Amino acid sequence: QVQLVESGGGLVQAGGSLRLSCAASGRTFSSYPMGWFRQAPGKEREFVASISRNGNSTYYGDSVKGRFTISRDNAKNTVYLRMNSLKPEDTAVYYCAAVLMASLERTVVRGTAYDYWGQGTQVTVSS
Predict the structure, then answer these.
(1) Rounded to an integer, what distance in angstroms lies between the CA atom of residue 5 and that of residue 3?
(2) Each residue's pLDDT tens digit, 30-76
């Protein structure tokens, strides 16, 4: 089992940047592909990005491609989401998620496939 805690959210002006972090408990962080999702008020949860266990494979949602970068540091049990060129429509609660998987290279896009979720961190982008 793994516990996830997000941090790094806040208020930023359009065009600005933020870096979210998700710290995981436990000694088997490298066993989990990781993902970032977001949910804005009144909207469905949206896939943002995912990364494979070894960090070699990443996948992004169309709305963030080219602006966001997911990365991980298995030695620090942490996954990151670097967000550049932020837009007001990026405003949402951002969640990290983990799923136990044997494959080193696979990324996971479907939210329902994830087993563990953090509590979320609010990102607000002002225009």
Answers:
(1) 7
(2) 999 999 999 999 999 999 999 999 999 999 999 999 999 999 999 99
- The set of residues, in sequence order, having a beta carbon less than 8 Å from that of 45 and lying 6+ positions away, is 37, 38, 39, 95, 111
Residue-wise DSSP of 19-87: EEEEEE-SS-GGG--EEEEEE-TTS--EEEEEE-TTSS-EEE-TTTTTTEEEEEETTTTEEEEEE-S--
Residues 100, 29: contact at Cβ < 8 Å?
Answer: no
- State how far the Cα of 55 lies from the Cα of 125, in Å rounded to an integer: 28
Place of tokens 């990102």: 123
Question: How many residues are listed for the chain in this entry?
Answer: 127
- Alpha carbons 97 and 79: distance in angstroms, whole number: 10
